[in-house]
Specification:
This protein is an alpha/beta fold and about 450 residues long. The protein folds into two domains: about 5-10 and about 40-300, Metallo-beta-lactamase domain (Metallo-beta-lactamase, Chain A); about 365-460, Serine Threonine Protein Phosphatase 5, Tetratricopeptide repeat (Alpha Horseshoe), CATH 1.25.40.880. Helix content is about 45%, strand content about 15%. The chain is built from 15 helices and 13 strands. The protein has helices spanning about 5-20, 30-40, 85-95, 120, 145-155, 255-265, 280-310, 315-320, 325, 340-350, 365-375, 380-390, 395-410, 415-430, 435-460; strands at about 45-50, 55-60, 65-70, 75-80, 100-105, 130, 190, 195-200, 205-210, 220-225, 230, 270-275, 280. Helix 8 (about 315-320) packs antiparallel against helix 10 (about 340-350) and helix 11 packs across helix 12 (about 380-390). The radius of gyration is 24 Å and the shape is globular. It starts with 6 loop residues before the first helix and ends with a helix.
Length: about 450
């Protein structure tokens, strides 16, 4: 097992997960959940790690890694960090290793946290910049739903939350920040359309291979002489984000598994993810990649089988689980992605929004449903009483739903909002999934800010 993983931690985690109570989100006591996330933060300790004599990777200088490959007369950089600030810190460390000029930069894909520091590494040079010919996705350039996408991205990564106390980590990195995203980006100069592009840069043989997965433009980088594979975002030490709660186009889960199997076939000795720490040792790398592919394939195949038997997304989200062997893998813990989110995404990716149940075709409006739920409860007053009891019972998911009904009905709306904030904050602290925790806390913060603004306006009128 890789030295960066504490075996005692994984024993603790497995015992903990057995005891968790699931209400649509992984839950434990707040102390246990936060301890698990803080232990996971060890993956993001700030350090430049020597992989081989000519390959180094900088971990913990932002949400994503940057790697250095030393060539005969120049340097190759794989991914450039999430900001100019992060790149400056990494570049200072890389310059302690070699003062050769940077003559090539390779982007594994187009997510902004991987491309935002290129100008810092390039300096006064004009390096060749390599990326897939289809480089670009919803986080680069314009997007028709850009406003809500950015808002939800802020929630997923907790961009408005306090580091350390509120944001423990973001699942695959210590923290994300919006300042500087895209600031140091340099345009691609070598657009790769070949499935496998083989070249030699600074005396280093390099294969840049198409590997659709987390993004369609994903490429892995293979150094056959050093037996080092740069995985991009198709592998990191957490269950993969097969569906990001910030929102995205469908990520083809089947292609993702195919790409991992192709990476496994390279038989690398060293695996360098673009998030989390590298893994060394042929057997360990092979197991990590093959288990990751098997985990993704299992979720995909179980979901498809259930779909064909007529199960709805809600039913499948309860039914589909990782096989026990894979669920115990340190590389498939749900710190970033979650199995139920992946299941729902696979369903909608193949069949769209309709779950197949005719009662879902023309549902009641939110107000109509809330009115009828209140009536069943014996009136809005009783529904409010149930909401308070749910908070007392620590049934936070149900409390959120009851609060939504009361807010829709405008019954004691401000009190219902306050109780929803309590439910969100309490549920967040039970989470071992970082995006879910950050999303809960971010929405709670937004609701509180809206209440404060309204109170300030009302006070100014008095």
């Amino acid at each position: 097992m890789n030295k960066s993983i504490n075996p005692n931690f994984w024993l603790f985690l497995r015992l903990l997960l057995v005891s968790l109570i699931s209400t649509g989100a992984t839950q434990a006591s707040s102390t246990q959940a936060e301890a698990v996330l803080r232990e996971h933060s060890n993956e993001f300790r700030r350090e430049v790690i020597k992989v081989t004599d000519s390959v180094y990777v900088a971990v913990g200088y932002g949400a994503s890694n940057s790697a250095l490959v030393i060539g005969e007369t120049g340097l190759i950089i794989v991914d450039t960090g999430q900001s100019i600030t992060a790149a400056e810190a990494i570049n200072r460390e890389f310059r302690k290793i070699s003062d050769k000029p940077v003559t090539a930069i390779i982007y594994t894909h187009s997510h902004r946290d991987h491309i935002s520091g290129a100008s810092i590494f390039a300096g006064d040079q004009t390096p060749d910049i390599f990326a897939s010919a289809n480089f670009a996705n919803e986080l680069v350039g314009g997007h028709v739903a850009g406003e809500i996408l950015f808002k939800r991205t802020k929630r997923q990564f907790g961009l408005g939350l306090k580091p350390e106390t509120e944001v423990i980590n973001v699942g695959v990195g210590k923290e994300m920040w919006s300042d500087g995203l895209g600031g140091g980006f340099l345009p691609v100069t070598v657009h790769i359309s070949d499935e496998r592009y083989s070249t030699t840069i600074e005396g280093v043989r390099i294969d840049i291979v198409a590997a659709p997965g987390e993004t369609d433009d994903q490429r892995y980088i293979w150094l056959p002489d050093q037996e080092v594979l740069f995985a991009g975002d198709n592998f990191y030490k957490a269950f993969p984000n097969l569906y990001p709660i910030r929102g995205s186009r469908y990520r083809d889960v089947n292609l993702w598994a195919n790409s991992l199997e192709k990476m496994t076939a390279e038989n690398p000795v060293h695996l360098v993810p673009s998030h989390t720490r590298p893994i060394s040792g042929r057997a360990e790398v092979n197991k990590a990649l093959s288990d990751y592919a098997a985990g993704i394939r299992s979720i995909h195949d179980q979901t498809i089988a259930g779909m064909n038997r007529g199960y709805t997304p809600d039913q499948l989200a309860e039914m589909v689980t990782l096989p026990e062997r894979l669920a115990a893998s340190p590389y498939l813990q749900e710190f970033y992605g979650k199995v139920p989110w992946a299941v729902r995404s696979v369903f909608s990716g193949y069949l769209g929004w309709f779950d197949g149940n005719p009662s879902s075709l023309l549902p009641l409006t939110e107000f109509e449903e809330a009115s009828r739920i209140a009536k069943l409860a014996g009136g809005a007053k009783n529904l409010f009483r149930r909401l308070k009891q749910s908070i007392k019972d620590k049934d936070y998911q149900w409390a959120m739903r009851l609060a939504d009904y009361l807010i829709t009905l405008s019954y004691r709306k401000e009190d219902a909002i306050e109780l929803k904030i309590t439910a969100l904050t309490s549920a967040a602290r039970l989470q071992t999934n970082a995006p879910a925790r950050n999303y809960y806390l971010s929405v709670a913060q937004e609701l509180q800010a809206n209440k404060d603004r309204k109170s300030a306006v009302e006070s100014s009128k008095e």
